[in-house]
Every structure is written in C-alpha cells, then in structure tokens.
Amino acid sequence: xxxxxxxxxxxxxxxxxxxxxxxxxxxxxxxxxxxxxxxxxxxxxxxxxxxxxxxxxxxxxxxxxx
Length: 66
Prior knowledge:
- The protein is an all-alpha fold and about 70 residues long.
- The protein has a domain at about 25-55.
- The chain is built from three helices and no strands.
- It has helices at about 25-35, 40, 45-55.
- Helix 1 (about 25-35) crosses helix 3 (about 45-55).
- The longest helix is centred in the C-terminal third of the chain and has 12 residues, at about 45-55.
- The chain is flat, with a radius of gyration of 20 Å.
- The model has no long low-confidence stretch (mean pLDDT about 75).
C-alpha cells in the first residue's frame, strides 16, 4: 500500500508480522522474567516462577460446582 493511500475497512495496519516470542514454554518465560526484572529475582526463585506460570496455564476451576 502506498504511503498516501487511505485504509479501507478490513485492511491491516502495518506489515503482518510473525510473533517472535512463544508463550508456550513457561520455563522460557520464567527465565526471561528473572533475567529482566531485578524485583522478581529478589522475591522468588526460578522454580517458583515456573510453578506459578504452569498453574496459570491449567484449566480454570469451575467454582459453580458444589
């Protein structure tokens, strides 16, 4: 699309890109969190972060069942 063309309904803005990060691996996410965030490093261990992330990916509990 040329610079001065207008966007039409349904057109994408910008170039379609493939995501360069996968959220499927809790261990990789935990490692990146520990590497980037000093506040996380000072509060929890890597294994604790992995456990938390894995618990978030589990099927939610149905609290309506008695």
